Amino acid sequence: MKWGYFPGCSLLGSARELRESLLAVAGKAGIELQEIPDWNCCGATAAHNVSRLLAVALPGRILALAEKAGMKEVVVPCSACYNRLAVARHELAADEHLREQVKALVEMDYRGDVKLVNLLEMLAIVLGKDAGLKVEKPFAHQVACYYGCLLVRPPKVLKFDRPEDPQAMDELMRKIGAEPIAWPDKVECCGAGLSVSRTDLVAKLSSRILASAVKRGAEAMIVACPMCHANLDMRREDITRLTGEHYSLPVVYLTQAVGLALGLSEKDLGLHRHLVKVVFPAQPKPAPPPQPPAEKKPAEAAEE
């Protein structure tokens, strides 16, 4: 199986572990990911605050490049990138004048026939009945599946899962042996792109999410977005200064959890790159089976 692939800026920098785990899982599944040639930043998350034309032209150029390369399906692992590409595709389909403006600006034709595949959709195929992969090491932990703002919203554009209580990630985690907790914060905002400009707000929002997951017994938080991972993993010191609480809950990319269940190594999955050490509670060892009483030797029996 061969798919187009848009890594986005984060996967080459702050989210290298997402890229490493994605490629490791794809390789295990026999999926070849072909990177879009000469791709550019999608504009997340600030371009739409500056210029609507720029906000659509940046992802529009990426889509046009994918079409030019003959790609029909493109995997977009970053939730923010997926959101921006999907919104741009929606706006270009609805506005002919905007479409002509973008085509002139990027100096390429654009038809709008590329299908976008998010991380959850790709992994559902990897773990599907016909994929031929088996769970080698069940991910037997209670997990908080955190979708964030951008993977399911706006619902009328993305049309993926339920916007207030999505279930796709929960279903994937059950397939690899995990137990998703029921919690009300799976789509709450973590602060997104304010991680640098308003660290105080990020600490406040992210602390609420972590506290909610810990309160309900989560042993790991599962994410699919580099910005969510950065805020929940990288901003722990800011959260501690704000709340006085020290959270040791690891934040794990969905691809890393799936990769562990498929038998891939922690190094191949980039787990060593996290700031919050990825340590799971030790699983209780099963009690040894009862042993039958030892048979007595003839001499011992005679003495009795």
Write a structural description.
The protein is an alpha/beta fold. The protein has 2 domains: 2-121, Glutathione S-transferase Yfyf (Class Pi), Chain A, domain 2 (Up-down Bundle); 135-273, 3-Layer(aba) Sandwich (Rossmann fold). Helix content is 42%, strand content 10%. The chain contains 13 helices and 8 strands. Strand 1, helix 1 and strand 2 form a beta-alpha-beta unit. The N and C termini lie far apart (73 Å). The model has no long low-confidence stretch (mean pLDDT 92).
> Number of DSSP strands?
8
The termini sit apart by 73 Å
The proportion of strand residues reads: 5-15%
Question: Quick one: CATH class of the largest domain?
Answer: Alpha Beta
Largest sheet, spatial ordering of strands:
2-1-3-4
Helix content: 40-55%
Q: What value does the average pLDDT take? A: 92
The string of secondary-structure elements, in order, is EHEHHEHHEHEHHEHEHHEHH
Radius of gyration: 23 Å
Give me the CATH fold name of the largest domain: Rossmann fold
Q: What gross morphology would you assign?
A: globular
Let me know the largest β-sheet: 4 strands, parallel
Q: Return the CATH architecture of the largest domain.
A: 3-Layer(aba) Sandwich
Number of domains: 2
State the secondary-structure class. Answer: alpha/beta
The number of helices is 13
